[in-house]
Amino acid sequence: MNITIRSEARSDYTDISLLNDLAFGRENEASLVEKLRKNPLFRKELSLVALFEGQAVGHILFFPVVVKGDKQDFSLLCLAPMAVMPEFQGMGIGGKLIEIGFKTARKLGYRSIYVLGHADYYPRFGFKPAGLWNIKAPFEAPDENSMAIELEENALLNKSGTVEYPVEFNDV
Ligand SMILES: CC(C)(COP(=O)(O)OP(=O)(O)OC[C@H]1O[C@@H](n2cnc3c(N)ncnc32)[C@H](O)[C@@H]1OP(=O)(O)O)[C@@H](O)C(=O)NCCC(=O)NCCS
To answer: Where do the domains of the chain lie, and which CATH numbers do they carry?
Structure first.
C-alpha cells in the first residue's frame, strides 16, 4: 500500500477534521486540532497527514507542552491527537505517522515525547510509563495511559514534574 506522509497544508484542514470525526466518532478532537492551529506554538511540520491516492486517510499532531518540573520546568512534545480513517485502520498507517513524527521531532530539536493514550498501542513504538521518570499526567488518568519516550538517550534523565496541556485541551 503506497502511503505518503507529509506536513499539513491549508487545503487539508477540512479532510483532517473529517477523518478525526470519523475515527473518534465525535467532534472533540477535530475541534482541538482547529483550536491548536491558532496557538502561536503550533508548527505545521508537526501536523502530519497520511495520503492514499491523494486522499487524506490519517493525521497526527505533536504539540509542545511545558512540564512543571519538580526542580525546573522543561518542555517536550505531546502526541495528540492521532487518527486513521476507520476503513484504513490496522494497515500500519498509524505506525508510519508515528515514525515520521519522531524523525521530524528529532530534526526540529525535540528530545522527548509524551502521550496520554492506549496502553496497548504506544509501547510498540518505544513509549514507556511516564512514571518511570516521575512525569505525571496533566489530569487524573490511569498510570498505564501516561507514557513518554526519549528520542535521545537519557533525554529525560533527572527530569520530573507534571505535564501541563494548553487550555485548548480543556474541552476535549
Ligand atoms: C489508534 C489508531 C490511530 C491506530 O492507527 P492504525 O493505522 O490503525 O495503527 P497501525 O495500523 O499502525 O497499528 C495497528 C495496531 O494497533 C492496534 N490498535 C488500534 N487501535 C487500538 C486501540 N484503541 N488500543 C490498542 N490497540 C489498538 C491494532 O489492534 C493493531 O494491532 P496489531 O498490529 O497487533 O494487529 C487508529 O486505530 C485510530 O484512529 N483509532 C481511533 C482514534 C484513536 O483512538 N486515536 C488514538 C487516541 S490515543
So the answer is: 3-171 (3.40.630.30)
